[in-house]
Specification:
alpha+beta; 26% strand; 34% helix; 367 residues
Length: 367
């Protein structure tokens, strides 16, 4: 646990971070503030990895290595502004708190603290995978998220999938315009786009075969034509968010939608192209690392709640878990805490010590 002086420093840092929110991929001031804090208060090796920061507690090359990751981007607002409405400022502060606890200690492991950019877009963790060859040398990796609606300070755990995979999928169809009196002279995409929107639930049923795992779509937009009643529409887009417990199920659904679209285009004389945006993998915990984390939390006497269902929101930490076995878990932010991504939400500094206790238990650092 942090002493009073350390806690005051970490809370001050969190508030500094809160006052300089930056959009995904633009976290220069945020990273500079974290780097300055770690440089002043620790002897960690600090490396700018091209948009994200790596801080290393190195004891011996022969020892196993473990990683802890915190996100540091903020939510986008109008006029290219940003705000910390998800608690990433608090997550980064918690990881800096772990850095203070590591200072001067022998843990029997090399510890890598990853301050990651661009979680909100799903791109940040992929950047870590692409730019850090040392990632594959980690034995385990951990990350957490504060979660409103659960008792404050309770650790939220789940075996297997913790958070869903998701992506935005766009079908763009182009045909030929025609006079509204002679629509057969053209190629109108509205019928096919409508059928695709209506048929997607049946495609989901075909993939699930009655299994109760989650696979869903949310209609985001169906846009075609206009209000000129003399012209038959010739262009349109169907936008859907696809979400599920397994990225493989989403990939299968995309294949079905696109195959159906291509066949419909062939019949109707339309052209089509597809786009995927904001792709997130499923965030799935390794079973052995999950059991080990549960044993450590229990041994430390920390309150733990097992979740019945995965979170429906997505988290790009899943890209890291596909490279390194590890555990993603939550910390309850309070039953009455405003929801994430709402205007009323701000990270509660009282959660910092809860995160420190969890990290300390995973590292077996006495508190």
């Amino acid at each position: 646990m942090l002493n009073a002086n350390q806690l005051e420093k970490v809370i001050s840092l969190r508030r500094v971070l809160h006052e300089c929110p930056e959009r995904s991929g633009q976290e220069a001031r945020t990273m500079a503030a974290i780097r300055a804090f770690l440089h002043e208060h620790t002897s960690l090796e600090l490396r700018d990895m091209g948009g994200w920061l790596l801080a290393t507690h190195q004891e011996d090359d022969s020892l196993p290595s473990v990683g802890f990751r915190a996100d540091m981007d903020a939510l986008p607002c109008e006029d290219n502004e940003a705000r910390h409405g998800c608690g990433h400022d608090g997550h980064s502060a918690m990881l800096c708190a772990l850095a203070l606890l590591l200072e001067g200690r022998r843990t029997g492991r090399n510890v890598h603290l990853i301050f990651q950019s661009a979680e909100e877009t799903g791109e940040g963790a992929k950047r870590v995978v692409d730019t850090w060859p040392g990632l594959g040398l980690l034995q385990t990796i951990y990350a957490l998220h504060n979660i409103p609606g659960h008792s404050k300070g309770v650790l939220l755990m789940r075996r297997g999938c913790f958070a869903c995979a998701s992506c935005g999928h766009i079908v763009h169809l182009t045909g030929r315009p025609a006079h509204a009196a002679y629509p057969c002279d053209g190629a109108n995409p509205i019928g096919l786009l409508s059928r695709l929107a209506l048929d997607t639930p049946d495609m989901i049923d075909e993939i699930l075969h009655g299994d109760d795992r989650l696979l869903m779509r949310t209609l985001i937009g169906l846009n075609a034509g206009g209000e000129d009643f003399g012209i038959s529409a010739h262009e349109g887009r169907l936008c859907q968010t696809l979400r599920g417990h397994r990225k493989a199920d989403i990939d299968a659904l995309i294949q079905k939608i696109e195959a159906r679209a291509l066949e419909g285009c062939r019949r109707a004389g339309l052209k089509c192209d597809f786009e995927i945006r904001d792709a997130f993998p499923d965030t799935t915990n390794d079973n052995d690392r999950f059991d080990d984390a549960m044993a450590r939390f229990n041994a430390a006497g920390l309150p733990v709640k097992l979740l019945d269902e995965p979170m429906r929101w997505s988290e790009d930490f899943g890209w890291l878990l596909k490279k390194v076995p590890g555990v993603y878990f939550g910390i309850g932010a309070g039953e009455t805490c405003p929801g994430l991504h709402t205007e009323e939400y701000e990270f509660d500094d009282a959660l910092i010590q809860s995160g420190v206790r969890a990290f300390s238990a995973l590292m077996q650092i006495p508190v």
